[in-house]
Amino acid sequence: MGLFDFMKDAGAKIFGKDHDGDVTKPLSQHLREHGIDPTPIDFTFGGDGTVTMRGTVKDQDTREKAVLIVGNVEGVSRVDDQLRIAQAGADFGNVVARADTVSASPAGSSGSVAQASAGGNGGWSSRTYTVKSGDTLSGIATEVYGNAGKYQQIFEANRPMLKDPDHIYPGQVLRIPPQA
Question: Cβ of 13: how many Cβ atoms within 10 Å?
Answer without folding.
Answer: 9
